[in-house]
Amino acid sequence: MPIVKPISGHTGCGGVFRYLTKDGRALAFDYLNLPAPALEPGEDLPEYAPYDWARDMDATRREAGNDTPWKGKPARTYKHYVLSPDPGDRIELSDLRRLTMAWVRENFADFEVAVVYHDDNAGRIPHAHVVVNNTNVGNLRRLQDPAPRALKRSAQRLAKEMGLSYLKDAPKGAPSPPRGTLQRTYVRRAEAELSRRGLYSWVADIRMRVEIARAVARDEADFRSLLSEMGVAVADNSPRAQRRDWVYSLSDAPTRRISGESLGLSYGRDRLLARFSSGASALATNGGRALAAAAADALRVGGVDELRDLAEAVSFVDSRRIRSMEELRRAAEASPAMGEKVLAVAERTGMLPERSQRPPARRPAGVRTQRPGSGPAYRRGSEQQRQRSAPPQQPRRDDRGPRPPREDR
User: Fold this and answer.
1) Is residue 388 in a domain?
2) pTM above 0.70, yes or no
3) Where in the sequence is the domain holding 221, given as residue range(s)?
4) How many domains does the structure of the chain reveal?
5) In a domain, 32, yes or no
6) To 5 degrees, how large is the angle CA 316–CA 318–CA 321?
């Protein structure tokens, strides 16, 4: 069953181009409505010479005037879709290219499209990154965001026609999964199954973004702002709900929404407010902003695997209350399976200082520290000073001798 994940771009295409082509990890390329230099144009699946498709997409958009803001909001300059086949199909790259291009022609026939194929996920499963420019090459109008459900149905139908696994729509009125949990992090069966098969889960996606924001944020306002930068909206749940909670949703797909406590108690409103009121974490007071920027950059170009690495590193550091790289190296030695990976992320993002600030030394029990201007020597000097500066005392009456007798008048 192919999974389609949408991501909106609001900048030039240079960033996503560099991300998808860096380190020579691209397996192959395909194009639609772009002047890509084909080395074997007569073949069903042509090979292409190196080509800067981002430059041509940016030029088309600029000439059509589609880089300007729309209704006061930044222009959506392109759509980036990640099309992942079912790992159980063990699909060959050639079949993935045929499936992807059939899906592209069916849904984006009048737009410039660049497709880059990778297999850099955990299971080495080939998948397609589809970048669609926002300008219709026929009428120069902006791309109207296709309905995610229609795109998904198109991919499932084409997969079925090719003899691949496909996913049927759930029947109307089907019961929703149970909500609420007492676990710190709660993973439902469907999410766990998608993760096991190396497929995208929007619930896991939201949890990863919230995990990073909760560790980095100093207070509620900071938490909401960070999530907004990472493409997650936060809203209060219904006033009629039994428990007050927050509801998270993907900005690009508002129907994909889930309450905090459905992700686990650590992501619910009450637990988060209590966390913020207890003081900022080590990540919030040190390299939190660099970490949040790295997460936003990964999301901007569809780096789900990179986002997962960041979230795992944050969870590792936060749960162990690690405050410095020095402490992290010791923890990594104790947990080498995860620690080495976390250490690499921490060094790359600068999320922790080299050494934590030590608290002031505590004096031994029973030892009292003298304040300045106290102690026996000070008391003796003060007494002498008072004696020198005091006015002369009048002798007492007993020292003047006997009182003379009183004369009668």
Assistant:
1) no
2) no
3) 189-349
4) 2
5) yes
6) 110
